[in-house]
Design a protein that fits this description.
The protein is an alpha+beta fold. The protein contains 14 helices and 13 strands. It folds into five domains: about 180 residues, A middle domain of Talin 1, CATH 1.20.1420; about 50 residues, no CATH class; about 100 residues, 2-Layer Sandwich (Beta-Lactamase); about 70 residues, Helix Hairpins, CATH 1.10.287; about 150 residues, Heat Shock Protein 90.
């Protein structure tokens, strides 16, 4: 069994934990999702029908009273009788609770009595109508009303009972999930630790042998059984130890000891390694570099000029960076990887390089490691696709959820108590925050997939500033923060995508308002800087420490301890939008003295004034 298979097998228990947790979670969510349906499916229609029948009875009663007193009646009694009959038929076809059938039958009988009384009062002489109203129609109305109230109370009690059952089921399911998670996690950790310890045992043997040889015992050997990579490495190590023992007795062995050890070390690396001198010549390379980069083929001495043009440019750039005294070169992301063609298909190599120092401390060369990140980039693409798919699928239910919360919060479907109104306000705020996160994830997926398209137009700078400030004016007032707009002295236009530039301004202003204490000040302004327009958002907030300024625009990076309402994508997306416009973005900040975020957008060509 190979080392890769053993590593995968060692992680299998943890994968099983995830599967068990997923099954338990899906089961719990399914059971919880049936609760509201159980409550509403059977009883809600009956409650609604009862309320509407009561409303129709009240309207008919008002019409009858007006008719009895000789006043004009409001509404057509035939319409209200038709509505009552429609809702009564709906109730008769929605019998779901014990005793509801009998209550519905009583309501049908009393409705018939009420209709009979209603028709008699309409046909009675005028002088007898009022007397008949109180002696016959009013009692019939009370009996029909009581029958409808009985159906209403019966279904409301049933809904309350089902809600209680749903709550108890939720508590049981929560307990089940907790128990299943703890048990699966414990079992997965125990099995993973046991299998990992067994897998690492040959490495311990190899490590002990290396330590003994390092102490001078060249007779030590690593005895590792198996056919995996560790066993192969142990065999190669034993071969090296044998050769070291042979060279130990000769002066040549003493001279080449250090070189062979270093060569064996870099040859054991799976990634290409190049050791360059100050002039850019190749001093040394490993087998992976020879194979993957096709250097030294046909007996030709390896040279940087034999590399592919794109890779040669990257190697030269890394070498100049290190030799200029800037320290080791470390990549910032997969976007710095270079693509090459190999016998196994296209590969993506990510460079990193530490300097080589002489005994006097001067830089005498560069060691460039070209890490093969092909699989990692594929995994990153899969992750981005997954995030984009999940975010897209969230939009439809999230839109429905937002609409429902807004309708409830605005009391369009019924009045709310003070406590309910507070809960709906909190739900609305969280829903809006979730909508912002989904929008950020969708923008991120478009940026990373190269599908971000700009709709360029000429935009008035003053309009951009005022629109951005207007969007955050309410939040600033709630936080007692002064928000000012400083437009350019003269009319200036930029060439860009209005919606996306507005998104950048709103994001920067939102961050400034969020991180400014009550009584503070936030100012947004712009001025012409050469062929571009520079926008600035200044605040008197808490500021940012110097060690975080270089990483503030990285994806998903958030300053430790800082207040945040998102997932750390706003500044990253803003910078990508500005760079897509051909501009730049930066920040100046000191702790306790506020921050200034700025970006530039190319200015639009001035249009000639009308004659």
């Amino acid at each position: 069994m190979t080392l890769r298979a053993k590593l995968i097998l060692a992680q299998a228990p943890l994968a099983l934990v995830l599967v068990l947790f997923g099954v338990a979670s899906v089961t719990t969510i399914s059971l919880l999702g049936q609760g509201p349906e159980l409550i509403l499916k059977d009883n809600y229609r009956s409650v609604l029908a009862a309320e509407r029948m009561l409303q129709s009875l009240e309207r008919l009663e008002a019409v009858a009273l007006a008719h009895s007193t000789g006043r004009p009646a409001e509404g057509d009694p035939a319409e209200w009788r038709s509505r009552f009959e429609k809702e009564l038929l709906a109730q008769e076809h929605n019998i779901t609770e014990p005793g509801e059938d009998a209550a519905t039958g009583r309501l049908r009988q009393r409705w018939s009595e009420y209709q009979h009384a209603f028709e008699r009062i309409r046909s009675a002489p005028s002088r007898e109508q009022l007397t008949y109203f109180f002696e016959a129609l009013e009692p019939a109305y009370r009996r029909a009303q009581a029958a409808a109230d009985e159906i209403l109370a019966l279904n409301q009690d049933a809904m309350a009972s089902k809600a209680e059952r749903s709550r108890r089921a939720a508590e049981q399911n929560r307990t089940l999930v907790v128990v299943a998670t703890i048990g699966a996690l414990t079992l997965g950790l125990i099995l993973s630790l046991a299998m990992t310890a067994r897998l690492l045992r040959p490495l311990g043997v190899l490590s002990q042998t290396v330590r003994r040889i390092g102490e001078g015992d060249l007779q030590a050997r690593a005895r590792v059984e198996g056919k995996d990579e560790i066993a192969a490495l142990a065999g190669e190590f034993n071969t090296m130890a044998d050769r070291l023992a042979e060279y130990r007795s000769s002066s040549l062995g003493e001279l080449l000891q250090a070189q062979q050890a270093s060569q064996a070390a870099i040859d054991s690396l799976p990634d290409p390694v190049l050791v360059l001198d100050v002039q850019g010549g190749i001093l040394n390379l490993n087998r992976a570099a020879e194979t993957m980069l096709r250097l030294g083929a046909g007996g030709v001495p390896p040279a940087v000029e034999a590399l592919e043009p794109a890779l040669r440019a990257v190697v030269e750039r890394v070498r100049i960076h290190v030799l200029s005294g800037k320290g080791a070169y470390l990549p910032h992301g997969f976007e710095e990887a270079v693509r090459i063609e190999s016998s196994e298909g296209d590969r993506h190599l990510l460079p990193r390089a530490p300097p080589l120092y002489s005994e006097q401390g001067g830089i005498i060369g560069v060691t460039i490691v070209l890490q093969d990140v092909t699989r990692l980039m594929r995994f990153d693409e899969l992750k981005n696709d997954l995030v984009a798919t999940v975010a897209h699928e969230f939009r439809t239910p999230l839109t429905s959820l937002r609409m429902a919360i807004h309708l409830c919060a605005d009391e369009l479907v019924g009045p709310l108590t003070d406590k309910q109104a507070d809960l709906m306000a909190a739900a609305r705020a969280d829903c809006e925050r979730l909508q912002g996160i989904v929008d950020d994830l969708l923008d991120l997926s478009r940026i990373q997939s190269g599908r971000m398209e700009l709709k360029l137009e000429q935009i008035e700078v003053r309009t951009l500033l005022e629109s951005g400030a207007a969007a955050l004016r309410s939040a600033a007032d709630d936080g007692r923060v002064e928000l000012f707009v400083s437009p350019p002295a003269e009319s200036v236009e930029v060439q860009g995508d209005r919606e996306r530039i507005q998104l950048v301004l709103t994001n920067l202003l939102g961050n400034a308002v969020r991180h400014t204490r009550p009584g503070g000040r936030v100012e947004v302004g712009a001025f012409v800087a050469g062929s571009a327009v520079r926008f600035e958002v200044r605040d008197t907030g808490e500021g940012i420490a110097r060690e975080h300024l270089d990483r503030i625009f990285e994806k998903s990076y958030r300053v430790p301890g800082a207040r945040s309402g998102g997932v750390g994508l706003g500044l990253f997306i803003s910078r990508e939008i500005i760079q897509a416009h051909g501009g730049t973005m930066g920040v100046k900040s000191e702790p306790g003295r506020g921050s200034t975020f700025w970006f530039t957008i190319p200015a639009a060509e001035r249009r000639p004034a009308a004659a």
